[in-house]
Model the fold of this input.
Amino acid sequence: MVSAYFLALLVERKKSFYRPLWLAALAILLWQPEALFRLDFQLTFLASAGIIFTFDYLSAYRSYPASLRYPASLGSHLSRILKHLAEYLFFSFTLSLVAFIMTSPLTAYAFNLISPIGILTNLATIPLASGTLCAGFAGLILLPLWPALSRYLLHLAAFLTRLILSLSTAAASCTRGFCYLPSPPKMAIAAIYSGLILLAILLHLLRGKMASVRKRACLLIFLLLLAAFLIPLILLRLVGSKPLAPAAPAHKLLTATFLDVGRGDACVIKTAGGKYILIDGGGSYNHYEFDFGRRVVAPYLWHERAAHLDLVILSHPHPDHLNGLLFILKHFSVAQVWKTKERSNNREYRLFEEIIQRKKIPVRIMTEGEEVELDGVLFQILAAGNLPDLPKNIKNTKIAFREENNRSLVLKLCWRQVSFLFTGDIEARAEKHLLPLGYRLRSTLIKVPHHGSRSSSSLPFLHLVAPQVAIFSGRRYGRQQFPHPKIVDRYQKLGCLIYRTDRDGAITVETDGVERRFLTYAKVFENMAGYPSWLKISSEDYSQQSPTSD
Done:
């Protein structure tokens, strides 16, 4: 779009201000009508519109940076160079600021992230990108005519490309160069863009009247743009730094969302009173390969505008439950943490404890038999890693890892007539020790133990739980098949409704304490690039359906 506008400038079609923009947009929409709803099209269109409008407007007051005075001792040539440099910096910074302002509300909504440092990096990357394009095109054109020169030009283009990537990587690694935000309300986004449109109209109407004060016109525009940038940023930052007062629902519901975190577990519970509880955070065994806390759990919480967590629960310190919590504890306000007395020597668990100590988050070591009420929800601790006859100090790493599963925190969440059983990664050995609890195990919904491993979900245990709904959180990985077909079949034979994060994506259970409704986040929307998967909800009421087959 911007290219079309500057092409119009080259052919001296300066009056066609809107025409290149609309023609470019129309051409794209005629080719791909669905592009109108794609985030990449919207961001490109908004940035291009802002840049073209600002460039066209500032061109009328180009004399402002050129009118700067320099000492006569510098000489005419150096003064001319400094004037051109001042003009370049002024225009580049202003246009970069405009592009940032135009795209920030949408990026904050879709990605919960804005990067002000991009305003500065653009000052360097844009000229480098222009040099890359010129060197690359020249090298291709000269390839059949002058191969030696063409090779040097292509090497130059490659060097400039690597330099751009290095600058971008350095900017991305600057933690203070960007900030995370909860998703702003749609009305706030509409208000910001409405204000920008009104500002553009005002500037357009005042354009002729400001001819007598051209030297101050650009400064005025710059200050207005800076204000338009700072005010929304400050407001969004304030929203993200304080616990949000939940809106009073028309019908008070408790919701539990089982997120798709690959092989791990993560469940976000919102009580009827608006309190947020996170049970496990998912995680990859290679934490630096993919951070589920940053990429999945946090965006969901931000989209729900849950800047404050009233409770974080760690079932046991395995990577697929722990690692995703690291990002959450760093970037969210957390009232308290529940865990077992079990500890781990791995680096992530040490970091987990360091974050808690640094932020002074209260930690509660749970014990078997405890009952805690939070906002009308009763938590019953059925096991807290202290089951008898479980071997300790095992030298075999593989066996020790499995026995850590059996020391998972097992808790039952009760609200009115509905109950949820969270089992961590316990296996048949630990399930056997829970059998004396008898009817206390009975639950409406069960988070299937150990992701549906064939070493868990023993029949005596399931007969006592008697679940109506089974949630499988897991995914096949190498030789490990989670959930295992035999276990899925076992739950089907019990008459359970079955949901699986590997097939259904995130699964939300809404209940008023009696009736239940299930929302699955269908994968058919994954091809809609740019928006988080949980923004496209496929709502299905399975309450009257028979169990699904695998």
In short: Confidence is low (pLDDT under 50) at residues 1-15, 63-68, 239-250, 523-550. The two ends are 48 Å apart (CA to CA). Residues 47 and 102 are 6 Å apart (CA to CA).
